[in-house]
Structure formats: C-alpha cells, structure tokens
Design brief:
The protein is of the alpha+beta class. It is built from 3 helices and 9 strands; from the N terminus they run H-E-E-E-E-E-E-E-E-E-H-H. The strands form 2 sheets. It has a 5-stranded antiparallel beta sheet, with no helix packed on it. Strands 1-2-3-9 form a 4-stranded antiparallel beta sheet.
Length: about 170
Amino acid sequence: MKRTLGNLVIIAYVIVAITVTLCLLNYNEYSVTEFGNNTLILITDSSLEPDYMDGDLVVAKKGNLNNIEVGEKIFFYNDKDIKLGEVKQVNKYEGVSTTFILDGNHQVIEDDIIGSEKNVKVYSTIGKILSVLESKWGFLFLIIFPSVLAFLHEIFQVVVELGNKD
C-alpha cells in the first residue's frame, strides 16, 4: 500500500512537472502560454473584477475575428498587459486587416486580439497555482530542486547496491 501511494505521488509529480514545462515552452512574446488558438490567461490581480477574480485561469480561444460584433467583450494585448474591453466599432479593411475600437476610444489591431469573451472557459483558483509554478522561483523550488534530489537519491541507491554486491 505504501509503495503504491508513493508511486502515485511520483506519477502525479511528473505529470505536473511536464505540464508546467510545456506551458513555459509555449510562452509567446508577451510571456503568456499559447497552445495553438488557445491562450492561458492567468488573472493575477483585481483589474478584471467582477468578470474574473484574482487566481482564475481563463482559457481563451482565438476563434474567427469576423464573428466579433459591437457590444462584445474581447481580451487583447496592450503593451505587455492583457486587457478586457468592449467593442464599440469594427473597421474592416478589404483584404488587409480588421481593427476594433474599444471603450475609451482605444484602437486594437487584429494581431493583438486574444479572443472573445464568448469563447472562454474559466477555472477558479487554478490560475494562482499555475502562476506560482510558472514563476522562476516556483519552478526552481517546486520542479527543478525536487527532481535533482530524486536523481541524486537514485544515484546513491545505485552506488549502495553496487557496494553490496562485493
């Protein structure tokens, strides 16, 4: 029983370590994880309340930008931040691009659009956990350090076994 429980803990740890590593390897230029058309938005403050709470993980799907309509809320990149704004006007330029005018007269080009609020899934508190695991100190102490200790323990066990065979 004790061995089975230990194996389950190790398997869970490996799954978490691989998942966090994949998230970090899929960072875009804004330090946000992207898997294809899906973007993982970590809500780390209260700037998007009451729609999204601190600690939420929002998975936004890019979707078809032609379907975004006036009155819809969209996630977008603003410098190095992620913002949520309501579309006030859509400007389509024939065969070139689309721009969106958001509340506050803010203009956003289609390359900066993450996705519409219609195409999101919200996971409460998972964002807080993922933000700690993805931080440089969290990754070091919760992923790298235990892995190195496990590796050193295994080397020690091999040396002990080889020493007992003599």
